[in-house]
Amino acid sequence: MVGEGIEGGVFPIEKALQIANEKGVDLVEIAPTADPPVCKVIDYKKYLYEQKKRAKEMKAKTQKVIVKEIRFGAHIDEHDFNFKKNHAMKFLKDGAKVKAYVFFRGREIVYKEQGEILLLRFANELEEFGKAEQLPLLEGKKMIMMIAPKKTK
Description:
With about 150 residues, the chain is of the alpha/beta class.
């Protein structure tokens, strides 16, 4: 048995419960597989509260990853490409990841090389704002590419 104000030792269960009752706290089994099992004398409600508080702090510190999608057709005009590129720049500046994909309809899948060239050009033009996490990859009728924002100092 361990705890604050208690010298560690091996006690029978009745004696350990008696010590916990005298101190007005709970007897909690920490390591049930140890021989003999290890118990700790603590205020269990306070312990649960602190655990919850720590978990909440950890959750608050984590950063949410936002993924914005930009869809291209296999045959896209230069103006449309620039328009979508400007949106991607804004997303990357705001710290969001960009998932750019070319959607092939019907028999357009024949032009998958054109889609790959389009996505590589897109990544190349956004190089100062973000870097390509994943190169163009064909999944079904979509060719997908992920671009992550560069870390700003």
